[in-house]
Amino acid sequence: MRAARTIAAAEGWEVDAPTCQVRGEPPHEIRVAASGGRLPGRRLLRVRERAPGVAADSADIDARVAAVSEHVVGVVAQLPDRRVRGREVDAVLLDFPEHGDLDGLLARRGGVRSGEAATILLGVAAGLAALHSSGWAGPGLTGSGIVFLGDGCPALDALDDVGPWTADAAVTDAERFYALARTICLKVVDGFGMRLLAAVEAGLRRGRWPAVADSVLRVVAPESVGLEPSTLDDVEPVERRISSSRVGRAAVLVSRAMDLLDGRPGRALGERIRTTLRRRPALVAAAAVPVVAALAFVALSPAPGSSPHTAATPMPTPSPFGRTATPTATATPTPTPSSSAVAPAAAVAEAAVGAGEAAGGSATEDPVDAARAVLDARHSCFTARPAFSDCLTGVLDEGSPVVAEETAALGAEGAAAKRDFSGATLSLVERWGGAALVSAAPDSTRTPKSEPASLLLVRIEAGWRLRAVYP
What was the pLDDT predicted at 137? Predict the structure, then answer.
Protein backbone atom coordinates (compact mmCIF):
# COMPACT_ATOMS: atom_id res chain seq x y z
CA MET A 1 0.00 0.00 0.00
CA ARG A 2 2.91 2.34 0.70
CA ALA A 3 4.16 1.98 -2.88
CA ALA A 4 0.70 2.85 -4.23
CA ARG A 5 0.47 5.92 -2.00
CA THR A 6 3.96 7.02 -3.02
CA ILE A 7 3.15 6.77 -6.72
CA ALA A 8 -0.21 8.50 -6.28
CA ALA A 9 1.37 11.36 -4.33
CA ALA A 10 4.02 11.82 -7.01
CA GLU A 11 1.30 12.08 -9.67
CA GLY A 12 -0.94 14.35 -7.61
CA TRP A 13 -3.68 11.76 -7.13
CA GLU A 14 -5.72 10.74 -4.16
CA VAL A 15 -6.22 7.09 -3.31
CA ASP A 16 -9.30 5.57 -1.77
CA ALA A 17 -7.96 3.15 0.83
CA PRO A 18 -11.26 1.36 1.58
CA THR A 19 -11.40 0.03 -1.99
CA CYS A 20 -7.87 -1.32 -1.87
CA GLN A 21 -7.44 -4.91 -3.05
CA VAL A 22 -4.33 -6.87 -2.14
CA ARG A 23 -3.53 -9.94 -4.20
CA GLY A 24 -0.91 -12.64 -4.00
CA GLU A 25 0.81 -14.48 -1.18
CA PRO A 26 2.95 -12.77 -0.14
CA PRO A 27 1.17 -9.69 -1.51
CA HIS A 28 2.70 -8.74 -4.87
CA GLU A 29 -0.15 -6.70 -6.35
CA ILE A 30 -2.21 -3.84 -4.97
CA ARG A 31 -5.27 -2.34 -6.64
CA VAL A 32 -6.64 0.93 -5.38
CA ALA A 33 -9.02 3.59 -6.68
CA ALA A 34 -7.24 6.77 -7.72
CA SER A 35 -8.79 10.15 -8.49
CA GLY A 36 -7.97 13.84 -8.60
CA GLY A 37 -5.21 15.64 -10.45
CA ARG A 38 -5.77 15.41 -14.18
CA LEU A 39 -7.62 12.11 -14.01
CA PRO A 40 -11.07 12.17 -15.63
CA GLY A 41 -12.96 10.52 -12.82
CA ARG A 42 -11.87 7.47 -10.87
CA ARG A 43 -9.33 5.06 -12.26
CA LEU A 44 -7.83 1.85 -10.95
CA LEU A 45 -4.18 2.12 -9.96
CA ARG A 46 -2.56 -1.30 -10.12
CA VAL A 47 0.85 -1.64 -8.51
CA ARG A 48 2.98 -4.78 -8.77
CA GLU A 49 6.26 -5.42 -7.03
CA ARG A 50 9.01 -7.66 -8.35
CA ALA A 51 12.49 -8.57 -7.25
CA PRO A 52 15.40 -6.62 -8.78
CA GLY A 53 16.62 -8.16 -12.01
CA VAL A 54 13.33 -9.94 -12.73
CA ALA A 55 11.84 -8.84 -16.03
CA ALA A 56 8.34 -7.42 -15.93
CA ASP A 57 5.59 -9.52 -17.50
CA SER A 58 3.72 -7.16 -19.77
CA ALA A 59 1.57 -9.72 -21.60
CA ASP A 60 -1.67 -8.60 -19.97
CA ILE A 61 -0.92 -4.93 -20.72
CA ASP A 62 -0.10 -5.74 -24.34
CA ALA A 63 -3.32 -7.75 -24.68
CA ARG A 64 -5.45 -4.97 -23.19
CA VAL A 65 -3.93 -2.41 -25.55
CA ALA A 66 -4.24 -4.66 -28.60
CA ALA A 67 -7.84 -5.67 -27.94
CA VAL A 68 -9.21 -2.11 -28.13
CA SER A 69 -12.62 -3.19 -26.85
CA GLU A 70 -15.06 -1.83 -24.33
CA HIS A 71 -15.46 -5.43 -23.20
CA VAL A 72 -11.82 -5.73 -22.13
CA VAL A 73 -10.70 -3.52 -19.23
CA GLY A 74 -8.46 -1.01 -20.97
CA VAL A 75 -5.22 0.74 -20.09
CA VAL A 76 -5.58 4.44 -19.30
CA ALA A 77 -1.86 5.06 -18.76
CA GLN A 78 1.27 3.02 -18.14
CA LEU A 79 3.51 4.69 -15.58
CA PRO A 80 7.33 4.59 -15.55
CA ASP A 81 8.96 1.84 -13.50
CA ARG A 82 9.99 2.84 -10.02
CA ARG A 83 12.17 1.42 -7.30
CA VAL A 84 10.60 1.44 -3.85
CA ARG A 85 12.33 0.02 -0.78
CA GLY A 86 14.75 -1.99 -2.87
CA ARG A 87 12.09 -3.57 -5.10
CA GLU A 88 11.07 -2.83 -8.64
CA VAL A 89 7.54 -1.48 -8.94
CA ASP A 90 5.36 -1.56 -12.06
CA ALA A 91 2.30 0.69 -12.07
CA VAL A 92 -0.53 1.07 -14.54
CA LEU A 93 -3.85 2.91 -14.61
CA LEU A 94 -6.83 0.83 -15.73
CA ASP A 95 -10.51 1.53 -16.28
CA PHE A 96 -12.27 1.43 -12.93
CA PRO A 97 -14.91 -1.28 -12.31
CA GLU A 98 -17.49 1.05 -10.81
CA HIS A 99 -20.05 -1.70 -10.26
CA GLY A 100 -17.88 -4.56 -9.02
CA ASP A 101 -17.69 -8.02 -10.53
CA LEU A 102 -20.02 -10.84 -11.53
CA ASP A 103 -19.45 -12.78 -8.31
CA GLY A 104 -20.58 -9.78 -6.29
CA LEU A 105 -23.63 -9.26 -8.50
CA LEU A 106 -24.83 -12.84 -8.10
CA ALA A 107 -24.10 -12.79 -4.37
CA ARG A 108 -26.21 -9.66 -3.90
CA ARG A 109 -29.15 -10.65 -6.06
CA GLY A 110 -29.15 -14.43 -6.12
CA GLY A 111 -30.26 -14.55 -9.76
CA VAL A 112 -30.64 -12.58 -12.98
CA ARG A 113 -33.19 -12.15 -15.72
CA SER A 114 -32.60 -13.85 -19.05
CA GLY A 115 -32.05 -10.47 -20.74
CA GLU A 116 -29.39 -9.58 -18.19
CA ALA A 117 -27.71 -12.96 -18.62
CA ALA A 118 -27.71 -12.41 -22.38
CA THR A 119 -26.06 -9.00 -21.93
CA ILE A 120 -23.31 -10.51 -19.77
CA LEU A 121 -22.65 -13.40 -22.15
CA LEU A 122 -22.67 -11.13 -25.20
CA GLY A 123 -20.15 -8.86 -23.51
CA VAL A 124 -17.85 -11.74 -22.61
CA ALA A 125 -18.11 -13.16 -26.13
CA ALA A 126 -17.26 -9.75 -27.59
CA GLY A 127 -14.26 -9.47 -25.29
CA LEU A 128 -13.02 -12.90 -26.32
CA ALA A 129 -13.54 -12.05 -29.99
CA ALA A 130 -11.50 -8.86 -29.57
CA LEU A 131 -8.65 -10.71 -27.87
CA HIS A 132 -8.62 -13.51 -30.44
CA SER A 133 -8.69 -11.14 -33.40
CA SER A 134 -5.75 -9.22 -31.92
CA GLY A 135 -3.70 -12.39 -31.45
CA TRP A 136 -4.29 -13.10 -27.76
CA ALA A 137 -6.16 -15.78 -25.82
CA GLY A 138 -6.51 -17.29 -22.37
CA PRO A 139 -8.31 -14.76 -20.13
CA GLY A 140 -9.80 -16.00 -16.91
CA LEU A 141 -13.55 -16.47 -17.30
CA THR A 142 -14.52 -16.56 -13.64
CA GLY A 143 -16.99 -14.43 -11.75
CA SER A 144 -14.23 -12.34 -10.21
CA GLY A 145 -12.60 -11.76 -13.59
CA ILE A 146 -15.72 -10.28 -15.22
CA VAL A 147 -16.34 -6.72 -14.04
CA PHE A 148 -18.86 -3.96 -14.76
CA LEU A 149 -17.48 -0.59 -15.80
CA GLY A 150 -19.03 2.82 -15.19
CA ASP A 151 -21.63 2.45 -17.94
CA GLY A 152 -22.57 -1.02 -16.71
CA CYS A 153 -20.72 -2.69 -19.56
CA PRO A 154 -19.40 -6.19 -18.71
CA ALA A 155 -15.67 -6.47 -19.40
CA LEU A 156 -12.87 -9.02 -19.03
CA ASP A 157 -10.29 -8.15 -16.40
CA ALA A 158 -8.49 -11.41 -15.49
CA LEU A 159 -5.76 -11.27 -18.11
CA ASP A 160 -2.77 -12.38 -16.04
CA ASP A 161 -2.55 -15.72 -17.86
CA VAL A 162 -3.10 -14.53 -21.42
CA GLY A 163 -0.71 -15.57 -24.13
CA PRO A 164 -0.39 -15.59 -27.90
CA TRP A 165 -3.37 -17.09 -29.71
CA THR A 166 -3.01 -20.81 -30.47
CA ALA A 167 -5.45 -23.54 -31.43
CA ASP A 168 -5.16 -25.02 -27.94
CA ALA A 169 -5.88 -21.66 -26.34
CA ALA A 170 -8.92 -21.14 -28.56
CA VAL A 171 -10.25 -24.55 -27.54
CA THR A 172 -9.75 -23.74 -23.87
CA ASP A 173 -11.49 -20.38 -24.22
CA ALA A 174 -14.51 -22.06 -25.81
CA GLU A 175 -14.64 -24.59 -22.97
CA ARG A 176 -14.42 -21.89 -20.33
CA PHE A 177 -17.04 -19.76 -22.03
CA TYR A 178 -19.52 -22.63 -22.13
CA ALA A 179 -18.85 -23.40 -18.46
CA LEU A 180 -19.45 -19.73 -17.60
CA ALA A 181 -22.65 -19.69 -19.68
CA ARG A 182 -23.93 -22.77 -17.88
CA THR A 183 -23.24 -21.19 -14.49
CA ILE A 184 -25.04 -17.98 -15.42
CA CYS A 185 -27.98 -19.70 -17.11
CA LEU A 186 -28.65 -21.78 -14.00
CA LYS A 187 -29.11 -18.45 -12.19
CA VAL A 188 -31.77 -17.19 -14.62
CA VAL A 189 -35.10 -16.79 -12.81
CA ASP A 190 -37.60 -16.17 -15.60
CA GLY A 191 -37.64 -19.60 -17.19
CA PHE A 192 -35.41 -18.98 -20.20
CA GLY A 193 -32.07 -20.09 -18.76
CA MET A 194 -31.81 -23.39 -20.59
CA ARG A 195 -33.00 -21.87 -23.85
CA LEU A 196 -30.29 -19.27 -23.55
CA LEU A 197 -27.72 -21.98 -22.88
CA ALA A 198 -28.99 -23.87 -25.92
CA ALA A 199 -28.47 -20.74 -28.01
CA VAL A 200 -24.90 -20.43 -26.73
CA GLU A 201 -24.24 -24.05 -27.64
CA ALA A 202 -25.74 -23.61 -31.10
CA GLY A 203 -23.51 -20.60 -31.72
CA LEU A 204 -20.39 -22.38 -30.50
CA ARG A 205 -21.02 -25.20 -32.94
CA ARG A 206 -20.41 -22.75 -35.76
CA GLY A 207 -16.97 -21.95 -34.39
CA ARG A 208 -17.18 -18.14 -34.53
CA TRP A 209 -17.86 -15.66 -31.75
CA PRO A 210 -20.20 -13.52 -33.92
CA ALA A 211 -22.26 -16.68 -34.46
CA VAL A 212 -22.66 -16.99 -30.69
CA ALA A 213 -23.99 -13.43 -30.53
CA ASP A 214 -26.40 -14.05 -33.42
CA SER A 215 -27.69 -17.23 -31.81
CA VAL A 216 -28.25 -15.56 -28.44
CA LEU A 217 -30.01 -12.55 -29.97
CA ARG A 218 -32.48 -14.82 -31.75
CA VAL A 219 -33.61 -16.23 -28.40
CA VAL A 220 -33.37 -13.44 -25.81
CA ALA A 221 -33.38 -9.65 -26.11
CA PRO A 222 -30.54 -8.13 -24.03
CA GLU A 223 -31.38 -5.68 -21.28
CA SER A 224 -29.39 -3.48 -18.92
CA VAL A 225 -27.92 -5.37 -16.00
CA GLY A 226 -29.44 -4.29 -12.70
CA LEU A 227 -26.30 -3.57 -10.74
CA GLU A 228 -28.03 -2.55 -7.53
CA PRO A 229 -29.22 -5.10 -4.94
CA SER A 230 -32.59 -6.52 -5.91
CA THR A 231 -34.93 -9.23 -4.71
CA LEU A 232 -36.17 -9.77 -8.29
CA ASP A 233 -39.74 -9.69 -7.00
CA ASP A 234 -40.80 -7.76 -10.08
CA VAL A 235 -39.69 -10.42 -12.52
CA GLU A 236 -42.46 -11.36 -14.95
CA PRO A 237 -42.22 -14.82 -16.48
CA VAL A 238 -41.73 -15.28 -20.19
CA GLU A 239 -43.72 -18.51 -20.10
CA ARG A 240 -44.35 -19.05 -16.41
CA ARG A 241 -42.85 -17.81 -13.18
CA ILE A 242 -39.82 -19.77 -11.98
CA SER A 243 -38.35 -18.99 -8.58
CA SER A 244 -34.68 -19.05 -7.70
CA SER A 245 -35.34 -22.10 -5.55
CA ARG A 246 -36.50 -23.95 -8.63
CA VAL A 247 -33.37 -22.87 -10.47
CA GLY A 248 -31.38 -24.25 -7.56
CA ARG A 249 -33.34 -27.49 -7.77
CA ALA A 250 -32.54 -27.73 -11.46
CA ALA A 251 -28.87 -27.31 -10.68
CA VAL A 252 -29.06 -30.08 -8.07
CA LEU A 253 -30.83 -32.39 -10.53
CA VAL A 254 -28.23 -31.68 -13.19
CA SER A 255 -25.48 -32.44 -10.69
CA ARG A 256 -27.14 -35.70 -9.67
CA ALA A 257 -27.65 -36.64 -13.28
CA MET A 258 -23.99 -36.03 -14.04
CA ASP A 259 -23.04 -38.20 -11.07
CA LEU A 260 -25.19 -40.97 -12.47
CA LEU A 261 -23.54 -40.47 -15.85
CA ASP A 262 -20.14 -40.99 -14.22
CA GLY A 263 -18.78 -37.48 -14.07
CA ARG A 264 -17.32 -35.91 -17.20
CA PRO A 265 -17.19 -38.48 -19.99
CA GLY A 266 -16.18 -35.84 -22.51
CA ARG A 267 -12.83 -35.03 -20.89
CA ALA A 268 -10.85 -37.47 -23.04
CA LEU A 269 -12.47 -36.07 -26.14
CA GLY A 270 -11.04 -32.64 -25.43
CA GLU A 271 -7.56 -34.10 -25.74
CA ARG A 272 -8.54 -35.75 -29.03
CA ILE A 273 -9.71 -32.41 -30.41
CA ARG A 274 -6.52 -30.70 -29.28
CA THR A 275 -4.46 -33.34 -31.09
CA THR A 276 -6.50 -32.84 -34.26
CA LEU A 277 -6.07 -29.07 -34.09
CA ARG A 278 -2.31 -29.39 -33.66
CA ARG A 279 -2.14 -31.49 -36.83
CA ARG A 280 -4.61 -29.34 -38.81
CA PRO A 281 -4.73 -25.78 -37.41
CA ALA A 282 -6.97 -24.63 -40.27
CA LEU A 283 -9.81 -26.59 -38.74
CA VAL A 284 -9.91 -24.42 -35.64
CA ALA A 285 -12.63 -22.15 -37.03
CA ALA A 286 -15.03 -25.07 -37.22
CA ALA A 287 -13.65 -27.38 -34.55
CA ALA A 288 -12.64 -25.16 -31.65
CA VAL A 289 -15.75 -26.06 -29.71
CA PRO A 290 -14.82 -29.06 -27.55
CA VAL A 291 -17.87 -28.77 -25.39
CA VAL A 292 -20.15 -29.67 -28.30
CA ALA A 293 -18.11 -32.72 -29.16
CA ALA A 294 -17.98 -33.67 -25.50
CA LEU A 295 -21.74 -33.46 -25.38
CA ALA A 296 -22.08 -35.61 -28.47
CA PHE A 297 -19.87 -38.30 -26.98
CA VAL A 298 -21.40 -38.46 -23.52
CA ALA A 299 -22.81 -41.83 -24.59
CA LEU A 300 -19.27 -43.19 -24.22
CA SER A 301 -20.14 -43.49 -20.54
CA PRO A 302 -22.21 -46.70 -20.77
CA ALA A 303 -24.67 -47.94 -18.25
CA PRO A 304 -23.58 -50.99 -16.24
CA GLY A 305 -24.36 -54.06 -18.26
CA SER A 306 -24.57 -52.35 -21.63
CA SER A 307 -22.62 -53.95 -24.44
CA PRO A 308 -19.26 -52.52 -25.58
CA HIS A 309 -20.65 -52.10 -29.09
CA THR A 310 -23.53 -50.00 -27.83
CA ALA A 311 -21.31 -47.86 -25.60
CA ALA A 312 -18.90 -47.12 -28.40
CA THR A 313 -21.56 -46.04 -30.88
CA PRO A 314 -21.22 -42.25 -31.37
CA MET A 315 -24.45 -40.36 -30.95
CA PRO A 316 -25.76 -37.97 -33.60
CA THR A 317 -25.25 -34.27 -33.01
CA PRO A 318 -27.76 -33.14 -30.39
CA SER A 319 -30.62 -30.98 -31.49
CA PRO A 320 -31.06 -27.53 -29.90
CA PHE A 321 -32.65 -27.97 -26.53
CA GLY A 322 -34.76 -25.90 -24.21
CA ARG A 323 -38.11 -26.11 -25.99
CA THR A 324 -41.27 -27.08 -24.21
CA ALA A 325 -43.35 -29.85 -25.69
CA THR A 326 -47.01 -29.18 -26.40
CA PRO A 327 -49.15 -31.69 -24.54
CA THR A 328 -50.92 -34.07 -26.85
CA ALA A 329 -53.91 -36.17 -26.07
CA THR A 330 -52.83 -39.77 -25.68
CA ALA A 331 -55.51 -42.40 -25.58
CA THR A 332 -54.46 -45.00 -23.04
CA PRO A 333 -56.55 -48.15 -23.22
CA THR A 334 -58.17 -48.96 -19.91
CA PRO A 335 -58.74 -52.67 -19.50
CA THR A 336 -62.29 -53.65 -18.64
CA PRO A 337 -62.89 -55.99 -15.70
CA SER A 338 -63.78 -58.82 -18.03
CA SER A 339 -60.66 -58.46 -20.15
CA SER A 340 -58.25 -57.77 -17.32
CA ALA A 341 -59.28 -60.59 -15.05
CA VAL A 342 -57.45 -63.22 -17.03
CA ALA A 343 -55.39 -62.23 -20.07
CA PRO A 344 -54.60 -64.96 -22.54
CA ALA A 345 -51.03 -65.54 -23.63
CA ALA A 346 -51.71 -63.80 -26.93
CA ALA A 347 -52.83 -60.64 -25.15
CA VAL A 348 -49.74 -60.68 -22.97
CA ALA A 349 -47.52 -61.05 -26.00
CA GLU A 350 -49.41 -58.25 -27.75
CA ALA A 351 -48.89 -55.96 -24.76
CA ALA A 352 -45.17 -56.68 -24.79
CA VAL A 353 -44.94 -55.90 -28.49
CA GLY A 354 -46.97 -52.72 -28.02
CA ALA A 355 -44.69 -51.48 -25.25
CA GLY A 356 -41.66 -52.30 -27.34
CA GLU A 357 -43.05 -50.40 -30.31
CA ALA A 358 -43.90 -47.42 -28.13
CA ALA A 359 -40.41 -47.37 -26.70
CA GLY A 360 -39.12 -47.79 -30.23
CA GLY A 361 -40.68 -44.41 -30.91
CA SER A 362 -38.02 -43.10 -28.52
CA ALA A 363 -35.50 -43.47 -31.34
CA THR A 364 -36.39 -39.90 -32.27
CA GLU A 365 -33.68 -37.24 -32.04
CA ASP A 366 -35.77 -35.07 -29.73
CA PRO A 367 -35.42 -36.19 -26.10
CA VAL A 368 -38.71 -34.50 -25.17
CA ASP A 369 -40.64 -36.54 -27.72
CA ALA A 370 -38.68 -39.60 -26.62
CA ALA A 371 -39.59 -38.95 -22.99
CA ARG A 372 -43.28 -38.89 -23.89
CA ALA A 373 -42.96 -42.19 -25.77
CA VAL A 374 -41.06 -43.77 -22.86
CA LEU A 375 -43.65 -42.60 -20.32
CA ASP A 376 -46.50 -43.95 -22.45
CA ALA A 377 -44.72 -47.27 -22.91
CA ARG A 378 -44.05 -47.56 -19.18
CA HIS A 379 -47.68 -46.80 -18.38
CA SER A 380 -48.88 -49.47 -20.80
CA CYS A 381 -46.71 -52.00 -18.96
CA PHE A 382 -48.38 -51.08 -15.67
CA THR A 383 -51.90 -51.31 -17.10
CA ALA A 384 -51.31 -54.70 -18.72
CA ARG A 385 -52.90 -57.68 -16.98
CA PRO A 386 -51.18 -59.67 -15.78
CA ALA A 387 -48.15 -57.42 -15.30
CA PHE A 388 -44.84 -58.90 -16.40
CA SER A 389 -41.34 -57.48 -16.05
CA ASP A 390 -40.23 -58.25 -19.62
CA CYS A 391 -42.54 -55.47 -20.76
CA LEU A 392 -40.16 -52.92 -19.24
CA THR A 393 -37.13 -54.17 -21.15
CA GLY A 394 -37.66 -51.72 -24.00
CA VAL A 395 -38.39 -48.84 -21.61
CA LEU A 396 -35.73 -48.86 -18.89
CA ASP A 397 -31.96 -48.61 -19.19
CA GLU A 398 -30.53 -52.04 -18.44
CA GLY A 399 -28.48 -52.13 -15.26
CA SER A 400 -29.77 -48.85 -13.84
CA PRO A 401 -31.32 -48.70 -10.34
CA VAL A 402 -34.70 -47.76 -11.80
CA VAL A 403 -35.09 -51.29 -13.21
CA ALA A 404 -35.42 -52.84 -9.76
CA GLU A 405 -37.67 -50.02 -8.54
CA GLU A 406 -40.10 -50.24 -11.45
CA THR A 407 -40.13 -54.03 -11.53
CA ALA A 408 -40.99 -54.15 -7.84
CA ALA A 409 -43.86 -51.71 -8.37
CA LEU A 410 -45.45 -53.72 -11.20
CA GLY A 411 -48.88 -54.90 -10.18
CA ALA A 412 -48.94 -52.78 -7.02
CA GLU A 413 -52.20 -51.01 -6.26
CA GLY A 414 -52.26 -47.46 -7.63
CA ALA A 415 -48.89 -47.85 -9.40
CA ALA A 416 -50.39 -47.41 -12.87
CA ALA A 417 -52.27 -44.24 -11.90
CA LYS A 418 -49.10 -42.71 -10.47
CA ARG A 419 -47.31 -43.37 -13.76
CA ASP A 420 -49.97 -41.91 -16.01
CA PHE A 421 -48.55 -38.80 -17.67
CA SER A 422 -51.19 -38.42 -20.35
CA GLY A 423 -51.33 -34.77 -21.38
CA ALA A 424 -48.35 -33.85 -19.19
CA THR A 425 -46.17 -30.88 -20.10
CA LEU A 426 -42.61 -31.99 -20.78
CA SER A 427 -39.64 -29.67 -21.11
CA LEU A 428 -35.92 -30.17 -21.42
CA VAL A 429 -33.80 -29.08 -18.47
CA GLU A 430 -30.43 -29.97 -19.98
CA ARG A 431 -28.92 -32.28 -22.56
CA TRP A 432 -25.50 -33.91 -22.84
CA GLY A 433 -25.47 -35.54 -26.26
CA GLY A 434 -26.75 -39.05 -25.60
CA ALA A 435 -28.25 -38.12 -22.25
CA ALA A 436 -30.99 -35.68 -21.29
CA LEU A 437 -32.79 -34.44 -18.20
CA VAL A 438 -36.49 -33.83 -18.89
CA SER A 439 -39.01 -32.23 -16.54
CA ALA A 440 -42.53 -33.70 -16.49
CA ALA A 441 -45.46 -31.69 -15.11
CA PRO A 442 -48.65 -33.83 -15.05
CA ASP A 443 -52.07 -32.51 -16.00
CA SER A 444 -53.76 -32.56 -12.59
CA THR A 445 -57.24 -32.59 -14.12
CA ARG A 446 -56.56 -35.71 -16.17
CA THR A 447 -54.07 -37.57 -13.99
CA PRO A 448 -54.55 -36.33 -10.41
CA LYS A 449 -52.44 -39.08 -8.86
CA SER A 450 -49.32 -38.39 -10.92
CA GLU A 451 -46.60 -36.27 -9.33
CA PRO A 452 -44.13 -33.90 -11.05
CA ALA A 453 -40.86 -35.62 -11.83
CA SER A 454 -37.56 -35.15 -13.61
CA LEU A 455 -36.52 -37.96 -15.94
CA LEU A 456 -32.95 -38.87 -16.84
CA LEU A 457 -32.90 -40.47 -20.29
CA VAL A 458 -29.96 -42.07 -22.06
CA ARG A 459 -29.78 -42.99 -25.70
CA ILE A 460 -28.55 -46.41 -26.78
CA GLU A 461 -28.51 -47.98 -30.22
CA ALA A 462 -32.16 -49.01 -29.94
CA GLY A 463 -33.37 -45.58 -28.82
CA TRP A 464 -33.89 -43.60 -25.63
CA ARG A 465 -34.26 -45.41 -22.31
CA LEU A 466 -35.24 -44.24 -18.83
CA ARG A 467 -32.29 -44.32 -16.43
CA ALA A 468 -33.50 -42.46 -13.36
CA VAL A 469 -36.56 -40.66 -12.00
CA TYR A 470 -36.19 -37.74 -9.58
CA PRO A 471 -39.22 -36.51 -7.61
Answer: 95
